[in-house]
Design brief:
- With about 400 residues, the protein is mainly alpha-helical.
- It folds into two domains: about 300 residues, ABC transporter involved in vitamin B12 uptake, BtuC (Orthogonal Bundle), CATH 1.10.3470; about 80 residues.
- About 75% of the residues lie in helices and about 0% in strands.
- The strands form two sheets. The protein has a two-stranded antiparallel sheet. A two-stranded antiparallel sheet has the order 2-3.
- The chain is globular.
- The relative contact order is 0.19.
- Part of the binding-protein-dependent transport system for D-xylose. Probably responsible for the translocation of the substrate across the membrane.
- One of its GO terms (molecular function) is transmembrane transporter activity.
- Keywords: Cell inner membrane, Cell membrane, Membrane, Sugar transport, Transmembrane, Transmembrane helix, Transport.
- InterPro entries: ABC_transp_permease.
Length: about 400
């Protein structure tokens, strides 16, 4: 009897579940984060500490911004049981169109961005129409789209169209936020301020989330695990702050503009998936389409919105890509769709749909980015890099399927 009381006391104190049971139940979620840390540490060792030098850390985000942005849209598509094979070609087409109007029609860079976003929505509308209202499978529709938009990219961009390197447009991917707080010794003041604010917000959000779940009578993580997670999060944010603050030189460095773009995109779509009706409808349609339709959800409208979002995010990736290279070409965006799909599956999205979180997709994108950068530093050839990335995707999907069979 006393043993029962002790167990009840332990349950009440730790949020109804032990640390071991909680970690086992969420092994998939935390396993992705542990995999990212393990890969970073591995390449940090293999590269002799080169991987996590401040400038390389900043370059990791600048070079992989496109896959992070595309992974957000692709995750929504995969949750809805679809796939989009055309995003790389769409990025090339929209980038080529933007370069053309700036170079040959001398259109203002800001108006060009608006035009590129509008074209992305039209592309999403076109593909969403065939999938949602005609009933052509997304695989076939976007396979056709891959060919169509690659052809259009070749027609528009030709061999190459350069963009003025001094244009503010190029600054999107290459420049940093102005250091309004000056330098604190060798460190960028703005990066330190943003880092401290990020730590405070992280702690407050985690505590608020846990208290809300306790108030609602929901199962929560053990308090000991909560404390461990807070400590780990603070250390990671603090280390990232140090790397950002140490990057660049006395003239430029700190927080890259592209990181702000990624942050805005991620924040908006996390709000959509977690807080808005559309997000619940996407998960419902992906989890069980027939049941969602019977409950009154217009699945065709949901499908259309998913592809509209994908078109919009592909246009943002096109803007980022054109800004980074300051040039458009017919071969731009090659393989981008595979990187985005791989990031989603590595990050925990289910092959059958209905499951997936944006943080997981971002971690998957970072894993792909670290693999690319680490292997590049080591001088590994591109063909070996492709083989390794392919194996990683297969292992990630196999792990997901095996985990589901064990639960069943």
């Amino acid at each position: 009897m006393s043993q029962t009381k002790n167990q009840d006391s332990q349950k009440s104190d730790t949020g109804t579940i032990s640390i071991k049971d909680y970690f086992v139940a969420n092994a998939r979620q935390y396993g992705i984060y542990l995999a990212l840390v393990a890969i970073i540490l591995l390449f940090q060792f293999l590269t002799g500490g080169t991987l996590l030098k401040p400038n390389n850390f900043v370059a990791l985000f600048q070079q992989n911004a496109y896959v992070m942005i595309l992974a957000v849209g692709m995750l929504i598509i995969i949750i809805g049981t679809h796939i989009d094979l055309s995003v790389g070609s769409v990025v090339a087409f929209i980038g080529g169109l933007g370069a053309y109007v700036m170079a040959h029609m001398h259109l203002n860079w800001f108006i060009t961005i608006i035009m590129m976003l509008a074209v992305g929505l039209l592309v999403g509308l076109w593909q969403g129409f065939w999938v949602a209202y005609v009933g052509v499978p997304a695989f076939v529709t976007t396979l056709g789209g891959m060919l169509i938009f690659r052809g259009l990219a070749t027609h528009v961009a030709g061999q190459s169209i350069p963009v003025d390197p001094n244009s503010p447009f190029v600054a999107i991917s290459s420049n940093f936020l102005p250091n309004i707080f000056g330098f604190w010794g060798p460190f960028d003041g703005l990066s330190i301020v943003v880092g401290v604010i990020s730590i405070i917000l992280f702690v407050l959000i985690q505590i608020r989330k846990r208290n809300h779940m306790l108030k609602e009578g929901l199962q929560v993580e053990p308090s000991a695990w909560m404390n461990i997670k807070l400590i780990i999060g603070i250390l990671i944010i603090g280390f990232a702050t140090y790397l950002f603050a140490s990057s660049g030189n006395e003239h430029s460095g700190g927080i890259p503009i592209i990181l702000v773009v990624i942050g805005v995109v991620v924040s908006i779509y996390m709000f959509i998936l977690n807080k808005m009706v559309l997000g619940r409808e996407i998960y419902a349609v992906g989890g069980n389409r027939k049941a969602a339709i019977l409950s009154g959800i217009n699945s065709k409208a949901v499908d259309m919105k998913m592809f509209l979002n994908m078109g919009l995010l592909a246009s943002i990736a096109g803007i980022v890509d054109l800004s980074r290279f300051a040039s458009a070409s017919a071969q731009a965006g090659t393989g981008y769709e595979l990187d985005a799909i791989a990031a989603c599956f590595i990050g925990g999205a289910a092959v059958a749909g209905g499951v997936g979180k944006i943080p997981g997709a971002l971690v998957g994108a970072l894993i792909m980015g670290v693999l690319n950068m680490g292997l590049s530093i080591l001088g590994v050839s591109s063909d070996i890099v492709s083989i390794i990335k392919g194996l990683v995707v297969i292992v990630a999907v196999a792990y997901d399927l095996i985990s589901k069979r064990r639960k069943a």
